[in-house]
Amino acid sequence: MTKEKMSGKQRVLSGVQPSGSLTIGNYLGALRQWVEEQYRYESYFCVVDMHAITVPHDPAQLAEKTREVAALYIACGIDPDEATIFVQSHIPAHAELAWILNCVTPVGWLNRMTQFKEKAARQQQESVSTGLFDYPVLMAADILLYQAHRVPVGDDQRQHLELTRDIAQRFNHLYGQTFVIPEAMIRGTAARVMGLDDPTKKMSKSETDSQYHAVYLLDSPDLARKKIMRAKTDSGKDIRFSDDPERAGVNNLLQIFEVLSGMESREAIEAHFEGKGYGHLKSEVADLVLETLAPIQERYRKIQNEPGYLDSILARGAERAGAIAEKTLREVQKRVGFLPRQ
Ligand code: ATP
Ligand code: LTN
Predict the structure, then answer these.
(1) Does 51 sit in the ligand 2 pocket, CB within 6 Å?
(2) Does ligand 2 come within 6 angstroms of the Cβ of 142?
(3) Contact indicator for 55, 208 with CB cutoff of 8 Å
(4) Ligand 1 centroid vs 118 CA: distance in angstroms?
(5) Does the CB atom of residue 25 touch ligand 1 within 6 A?
(6) Residue 194 DSSP SS3
(7) Cα separation of 326 and 339, whole Å?
(8) Among the atoms of ligand 1, which is closest to the Cα of residue 17?
(9) What is the structure's pLDDT at 5?
(10) DSSP H or E stretch at residue 161
(11) 206 in contact with ligand 1, CB cutoff 6 A
């Protein structure tokens, strides 16, 4: 009997690219939800190294970053006895399913993807890879292989999740009911944490132009505080939630505060800051961020100091994930009419 049938739980799958060091944006938008929901669902969390090579990368660093991201999943609170943690490239079925899904995905659908346009615009036109264009199909394969019902991600992944649903529906329509149609799980607050240096841009781990752009989960307390104290705000004084682009910096800090403080209402938060200045807001946000990072960093160090621990988790994860992925892939191959190997 499969684990799902035994547990009767729906499945969750999500992933992060090992394309840099994890930021508080990754934590607030994605990982925190994973941790909170891990016992309610049968959870699969992968480190998507195949996605990380869709833009120029440093091969000397990729394996190390892959281990760092996996260790941070555990350090942030993912329970490796409960959830399955694995590396995408360890499971060949991801690439194999992506190929088959490519053949049911109209190019027009991919042409609409805004993340591709943004990422492609940052590179020399001639060097933009086919892999970057095809990134969302690989992501669909990641999700559909595990028949995931729910996908906890940040707001920037909304469009990719819609595409995944469209691909699954099209496949089911063409070849018969095969895939679960997954739903995105996106938080209302801090689902899009903005850059501290430029609150009009999403905070992102691969952004390296300014050293004050992002707080990384492994930043020292001094550095993290310094970055927050320097966060770009406006020339106003009021500390209020707002959609005004001019006030995006303060709004960003307030959203981080809202999530980390656990205060029940926005009115209460605004009342808490009544009559206080931006410096005060920043300093309270910094306190909360440091309180959040301390236990994560402590657990991370413990994992680093235990030789073989992480590798054993990833080996076990590949075993469990591989079994489920293989089963879905066989079914898909049968449905599209491939001759089974004897
Ligand atoms: P890259 O800079 O390499 O594109 P990234 O920092 O945007 O990376 P991803 O690996 O693409 O991170 O995303 C991992 C998860 O973190 C996704 O669920 C994504 O939606 C979420 N996420 C990324 N950035 C933010 C952010 N600024 N705010 C909230 N969630 C985020
Ligand atoms: N594209 C995602 C990373 C990702 C992912 C996934 C997220 C790749 N495969 C499957 C959820 C489920 C991003 O965050 N940029």
Answers:
(1) yes
(2) yes
(3) no
(4) 14
(5) yes
(6) strand
(7) 16
(8) 10
(9) 52
(10) helix 158-175
(11) yes
- Find the ligand nearest to 43 CA: 2
Instruction: Using the structure block, give the residue that is written with the tokens 């995105």.
Output: 184
Q: Is the Cβ atom of 47 under 6 angstroms away from ligand 1?
A: no
Our answer on whether the CB atom of 154 is closer than 6 Å to any ligand 1 atom is yes
Counting beta carbons within 10 angstroms of the beta carbon of residue 306, is it exposed (0 to 12), middle (13 to 18) or buried (19 or more)? exposed
Spell out, as residue ranges, where the chain has pLDDT lower than 70. 1-6
Query: How much is the pLDDT for 1?
Result: 45
Has this prediction a pTM greater than 0.85?
Answer: yes
Pocket test for ligand 1, best of 53, 193, 204, 207 (most atoms within 8 A of CB): 204
Q: Report CA-CA distances (Å) from 101 to 50, 108, 160.
A: 16, 14, 14
> Cα(79)–Cα(68) distance, rounded to whole angstroms?
16
pLDDT of residue 135: 98
Domain 3-187+306-336 in CATH 3.40.50.620:
yes
The alpha carbon of 143 and the centre of ligand 2 are apart by a number of angstroms equal to 9
First and final C-alpha spacing in the chain: 25
Q: Which residues pair with 329 in a beta bridge?
A: none
Q: Where are the domains of the chain?
A: 3-187+306-336, 221-301
CA of 194 to the centre of ligand 1 (A): 11
Under DSSP, is residue 4 helix (H, G, I), strand (E, B) or coil?
helix
Q: Whose CA is nearest to atom 9 of ligand 2?
A: 139
Question: How would you label 129-155 residue by residue, b for 16+ Cβ within 10 Å and e otherwise?
Answer: eeebbbbbbbbbbbbbbbbbbbbbbbb
Q: Which CATH superfamily is domain 221-301 in?
A: Tyrosyl-Transfer RNA Synthetase (1.10.240.10)
Q: Cα of 324 to ligand 1 centre, how many Å?
A: 26
Report the pLDDT value the prediction gives residue 6, as an integer from 0 to 100. 58
Give just the sign of the alpha carbon dihedral 182, 187, 188, 190.
negative
